[in-house]
């Protein structure tokens, strides 16, 4: 643990797990970053680790830029339990705009400006010429993501897209959410920090851990600090996002490191009981 604050948060979670909220991002945290967003399957040991923790804590929450339905689909594992098997699981998708709980989904209407984006984005991308080769549009129903991971120069193409995408988002009354080799156009008014704050209030949380890997998770890190309870900010580390590691209380090595942390947390909780 790098910080005293993180150590105090961890001590509280272990000593009083019934008051703890464990919140996690999906891509890059529970699932590895891969070239094809539709193939980002959850780490096979993650659901079992979450199921064991769920017996002890107030709530397990997945807060993701994905729709909850996609997190559930990608949360299937070949042999073990699946994400959907985690008792009491709450999934806040689209950065908190969609809420899935006990099989029920609640969501506001999709932003009207998305049709403009769907109409104009292909030409905007094509205008980059050969640099656009490999760009992938992911239509998530209430948001559209533009991926450059499969381009010859992913960072260069992302930079070239940044300004035209921002202009299009402005005209469509949407905001741009930057991430790992991706720019997402989505509705305003919600972020992972607000989503996390609402959950903490709902369950009267007495401690919190948030685990993330990307720029969109910085808002949730800020919410951990602002909450007047002990908390731990965990970065699922990668070479792609330095900013998150800089503000984390602890950095682990990608999804395998996240699973190891969840397992160690469960072990600490149960060894206290004996
Ligand atoms: O909030 P998250 O659960 O972390 O979702 C953020 C974005 O994740 C996905 O994109 C990222 O993962 C892909 C699969 O590994 C990878 O190909 C891509 O480069 C990453 O940016 C997802 O496709 C996006 O819609 C999410 O917004």
TrEMBL record:
Pfam families in the cross-refs: Trehalose_PPase (PF02358)
Region forming the signal peptide: none
E.C. code: 3.1.3.12
Reaction equations catalysed: alpha,alpha-trehalose 6-phosphate + H2O = alpha,alpha-trehalose + phosphate
Keywords: Hydrolase, Magnesium, Metal-binding
Top-level taxon: Bacteria
Biological-process GO terms, alphabetical: trehalose biosynthetic process
Protein's job: Removes the phosphate from trehalose 6-phosphate to produce free trehalose.
The name this protein goes by in its record: Trehalose 6-phosphate phosphatase
Pathway where this protein functions: Glycan biosynthesis; trehalose biosynthesis
Species for this entry: Acrocarpospora phusangensis
Broad enzyme group: hydrolase
Any GO molecular function: metal ion binding
UniProt record similarity statement: Belongs to the trehalose phosphatase family.
Cofactor(s) recorded in Swiss-Prot or TrEMBL: Mg(2+)
């Amino acid at each position: 643990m790098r910080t005293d604050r993180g150590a105090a948060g961890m001590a509280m979670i272990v000593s009083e797990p019934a008051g703890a909220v464990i919140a996690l991002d999906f891509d890059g945290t529970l699932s590895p970053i891969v070239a094809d967003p539709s193939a980002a399957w959850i780490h096979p040991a993650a659901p079992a680790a979450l199921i064991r923790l769920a017996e002890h804590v107030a709530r397990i929450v997945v807060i993701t830029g994905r729709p909850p339905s996609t997190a559930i689909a990608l949360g299937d594992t070949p042999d073990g339990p699946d994400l959907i098997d985690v008792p009491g699981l709450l999934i806040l998708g689209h950065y908190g705009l969609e809420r899935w709980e006990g099989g029920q989904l609640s969501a506001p209407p999709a932003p009207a400006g998305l049709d403009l984006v769907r109409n104009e984005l292909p030409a905007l991308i094509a205008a980059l010429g050969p640099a656009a080769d490999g760009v992938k549009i992911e239509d998530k129903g209430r948001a559209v993501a533009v991926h450059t991971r499969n381009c010859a120069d992913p960072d260069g193409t992302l930079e070239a897209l940044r300004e035209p995408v921002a202009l299009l988002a402005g005209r469509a009354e949407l905001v741009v959410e930057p991430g790992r080799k991706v720019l997402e156009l989505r509705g305003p008014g919600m972020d992972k920090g607000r989503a996390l704050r609402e959950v903490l209030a709902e369950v009267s949380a007495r401690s919190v851990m948030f685990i993330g890997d990307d720029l969109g998770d910085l808002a949730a890190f800020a919410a951990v600090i602002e909450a007047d309870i002990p908390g731990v900010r965990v970065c699922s580390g990668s070479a792609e996002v330095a900013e998150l590691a800089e503000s984390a209380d602890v950095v682990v090595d990608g999804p395998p490191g996240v699973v190891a942390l969840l397992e160690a947390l469960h072990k600490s909780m149960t060894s206290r009981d004996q």
